[in-house]
Fold this sequence. Notes:
Layout: E1 10-16, H1 23-38, E2 42-47, H2 52-60, E3 67-73, H3 75-82, E4 91-97, H4 103-108, H5 114-123, E5 127-134, E6 139-140, E7 143-147, H6 148-158, H7 166-177, E8 181-187, E9 190-202, E10 224-230, H8 234-245, E11 255-260, E12 262-267, E13 273-276, E14 279-282, E15 286-297
Helix pairs in contact: 1-5, 2-3, 6-7
Amino acid sequence: MLMINAEREMYYVIVNETHIKGKGSAKLEEVKKVFDVAGKEYKILFTQKAGDAKRYAEEITSDGNENTIIAMGGDGTLHDIINGFKDFEKNSLGIIPFGTGNDFAQSAGIPLNAKQSAEIIAFRAPQYIDFIELSSGLRSINSVGMGIDVELLKKVYQKNMRGKSKYLRALISTVIHFKSCNFTVKYNGKEEKHYGLISAIGNGKWLGGGIKLFPEAEINDGYLDLIIVDYLSKPKILGAFLKLVRGKVDKIKNVTYVKTKCATFVQESDNYTIQAEGELYDNVPLDARIVENKLKFYLP
């Protein structure tokens, strides 16, 4: 259990212990100096295994005090923390980008420089941003989806690929073997059947380490950005992905791209996997809505 200080707001920095080596250690020292100069009281909490960040967030946001949680990591750390949030009214969230892709930080305009991103948290007030919530209770701050992106992630994890280019390397193998799937989607009063390659919902613009899948997304506009890419022949898939990376969704055939408050995907198969911030979940319904004016986040 954490020892909570009830007298003043506490800043909790959650960071993966394995990352604090070499340059990582220097970045953490920069963050400490910023908070020292700002007169902030803070604690560094190290994660050692899956679930630690979520557990920390649950404890911190259940104490009845005003706190700030800082994810010193990437999209996965943010994902764990937001799913541990209990009291949104008294607690705020910030990020010091320290991951491989940092997709949400990029969407939020957070600088990759540790000192600069820490200064945003130390000297600015948080603002409301949106997040995605599924009917199961699962939350996503950046994106959720199913289709070829899920198969791509499975290959990355199975082969323990590293580096930012890991997604591109896995994509080539995924394209060769992936098969589109049948599903029904409901949004904006419509119900449509699709044979989809990609089915995804975004709050941020980027996913997969820099693929601009949702070029019109804004993290505080009160809408989900929904994209569906229907079946493409294998020779055309790589070309389509190159357009996606450049944010040219409108240049791809067989694409549905809309803004909506909620969306429901119904799979024909009983066994499927969805992804949220790169975390994989089996057979969780992709029934999503946007949540506004609840999460307080530090923005530039």
